[in-house]
């Protein structure tokens, strides 16, 4: 997805991202936070929830795309680049909402983050996500289970708290479900599917499966 091209319309279609951001923020225990780093901040949907709850003294934002000039949320520093390769600062807590499902080498990322923070809190899509899309378009998207992710985290963190949730979203027409996917970049239907497959898609509901994690 060319997120920088869809930045201004992203929030209109990001219903699941908004719900997940809210629930992730509620899942994080109330702690005193001086320094925080958010990975993949996007339009700042989760950022605003986090700032309202924790009021960190220093907030650092990151995104793969250089979209800092579009952000309306307050922050102290914007870190542009791929979180797997760029140097990250040391902070008390690292947070991320609806991003880590894109990471291929998740184990290596967890090791990197464990050396940069005391607490890691994030949400990501897990096994069973968007079955309506996977079955119709034969995409065979691979998502990890919460158990698999927890095992990886326990290699580098002493305590891991986990929960999972299911979200269903209903649309008036199947084409609106596909537009939602296109403009939020959840899955690459357009590039991987024929026009006939797109036209024959009949589902008016999309089911998201999400895992929430707090590692200390």
Oligomer: single chain
Task: Assign the CATH architecture.
Answer: 3-Layer(aba) Sandwich
Number of domains: 1
Count of strand segments: 7
Give the percentage of residues in beta strands: 15-25%
CATH topology: Rossmann fold
The spatial strand order of the largest sheet comes to 3-2-1-4-5-7-6
Give helix and strand order, one letter per element, not per position: HHEHEEEHEHHEHHHE
The span between the termini is: 32 Å
How does this structure look, described?
- The protein has helices at 3-13, 15-27, 45-54, 106-114, 131-137, 146-153, 174-184, 189-192, 195-200; strands at 35-38, 58-63, 77-80, 93-97, 119-125, 160-170, 205-215.
- With 216 residues, the chain is an alpha/beta fold.
- It has a single domain, classed as Rossmann fold.
- It has a 7-stranded mixed sheet, with helices on both faces.
- Helix 1 packs across helix 7.
- 33% of the residues are buried.
Describe the structure in brief:
The chain is of the alpha/beta class and 216 residues long. The protein has helices at 3-13, 15-27, 45-54, 106-114, 131-137, 146-153, 174-184, 189-192, 195-200; strands at residues 35-38, 58-63, 77-80, 93-97, 119-125, 160-170, 205-215. Strand 4 (93-97), helix 4 (106-114) and strand 5 (119-125) form a beta-alpha-beta unit.
């Amino acid at each position: 997805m060319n997120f920088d091209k869809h930045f201004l319309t992203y929030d209109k279609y990001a219903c699941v991202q908004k719900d997940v951001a809210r629930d992730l923020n509620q899942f994080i225990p109330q702690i005193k936070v001086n320094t925080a780093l958010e990975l993949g901040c996007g339009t700042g949907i989760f950022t605003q929830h986090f700032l309202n709850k924790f009021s960190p003294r220093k907030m650092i934002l990151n995104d793969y795309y250089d979209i800092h000039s579009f952000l309306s949320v307050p922050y102290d520093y914007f870190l542009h680049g791929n979180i797997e390769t760029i140097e990250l600062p040391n902070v008390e807590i690292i947070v991320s909402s609806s991003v880590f499902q894109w990471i291929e080498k998740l184990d290596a990322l967890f090791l990197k983050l464990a050396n940069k923070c005391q607490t890691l809190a994030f949400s990501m899509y897990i096994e069973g996500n968007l079955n309506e899309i996977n079955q119709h378009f034969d995409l065979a998207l691979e998502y990890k289970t919460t158990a698999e992710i927890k095992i990886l985290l326990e290699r580098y963190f002493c305590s891991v708290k986990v929960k999972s949730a299911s979200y269903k979203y209903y649309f008036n027409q199947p084409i609106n479900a596909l537009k939602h996917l296109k403009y939020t970049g959840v899955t690459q239907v357009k590039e991987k599917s024929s026009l006939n497959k797109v036209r024959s898609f009949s589902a008016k509901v999309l089911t998201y499966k999400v895992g929430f994690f707090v590692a200390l």
